[in-house]
Amino acid sequence: MWFHVSRVYLGKSVKLTPKVPSCVSINSVYQYEEGDIPHICVSDSIFKCLIAIMGIKYPIIENFKEYYKNNPFVYMCSKRPYIPPNASDFRFNKEMWYLEETKFIYIGCLDMYSLLKNLTIAPTNYSKTFKIPRTNLKYEYKEENINDIFLEYLIKKLYE
What we know:
Number of helices: 6
Radius of gyration: 16 Å
Order of helices and strands: EEHEHHEHEEHEEEH
Number of strands: 9
Strand content: 15-25%
Number of domains: 1
Shape: globular
């Protein structure tokens, strides 16, 4: 299963078209590392999708606050993606690419409050702005500390 996270709702079922990320410009570091190949980024982990968008290996709560104003939307696809050529963050977020138009299924909103407060990847029905919990702002969120219950929710949903 491969995940794609979006800050906007794209529909229950959507075909995404590969594009060059907006951060890639002529002579930029990203262009040198990843080229100007149109692609759709995915990862095998919802948490890794979040950190890939931020480009930060061990984000702190302020990074999430900066990049995510609302609970993000999670999409999935089972088609096998490609390993990107020389992507700078491939090693820490397992970023993979689709190079052709690809169909994704919406599986729910990610509860950012639950992630930041309880270190839990959990679904929510709300895409609204989330409240930032009071916690140690210097705490680094690392995948090995995250409890991913989103998949449990998805499996239950599939078999209902």
